[in-house]
Amino acid sequence: MSALQLTQTQSDLPYIHGFSATEQARLVRQARFSEAMVYRDVDFSGVQKLLEVGCGVGAQTEILLRRFPDVDITGLDFSQRQLAVARQRLQGSPEHGRATLLHMDAEDLDFPPASFDGAFLCWILEHVHSPERVLAEVRRVLKPGARLYATEAMNATFFLAPYSANLQKYWMAFNDHQLSVGGDPFVGAKLGNILMRLGFRHVETKVKTWHLDSREPHRRQQVLDYWTELLLSAADQLIEAGRVDAELVESMTRELRLLRSDPELVFFYSFMQANAVV
């Protein structure tokens, strides 16, 4: 793939955060920060060949290798730039020999049926044009009895108090833009329906929530810092698309600074995790 083709392909991806080195580093911090909540109910014991769809910079791959030492992982991503970073990062890990990273379209997997006995997807279906097509392909390449875990966004749940008008306006623009470029920031709530339509069995969904107030001030501060970074990661794209202007970004940032010092700050956000069996 030429540099021009790569640029064109990536520009068509509904990935609202971009592919900069800053964003790549943010993804690693995000994975580590949310690890406890994401993996609390994930169990790949007995799995030998695991498919990770949307491995990106290898942030989740690194965690999977550490948590499940008997698993060989095949990670795939549509971005060559992300894969290059993932390979470089994992090269320094003693577990890198158990990971194979491939450039592939998740909507058209280049594997024969029944190739894997487990699958893991995390923060990826919100960024693809057809989550159902991706999950159909994943089901095709899983063995009977294999288990899938999918962790996804449900952005309608985001709430901070005191109410901050510019922050909410920016957040609505964030979600509207993601929808307009072919993503779905609300796909987490739809996972149960999609998995049932595709014929998965034993479909379960769990709501995972950050609800932080004055009872946990340190953790609340950590979550707010994490989310501030996430919000600002999309600012350049939103400005370029005409969804927001620099003034709104500055006003939102100012509100976030005020919230940071407010002892009555309440932070609330829920995401979804589904698991199912082929």
From TrEMBL:
GO terms for biological process: methylation. InterPro entries: Methyltransf_11 (IPR013216), SAM-dependent_MTases_sf (IPR029063). Residues 51-149 form the Methyltransferase type domain. Keywords: Methyltransferase, Transferase. Pfam families: Methyltransf_11. SUPFAM superfamilies: S-adenosyl-L-methionine-dependent methyltransferases (SSF53335). One of its GO terms (molecular function) is S-adenosylmethionine-dependent methyltransferase activity. This is Methyltransferase. It comes from Chromobacterium vaccinii.
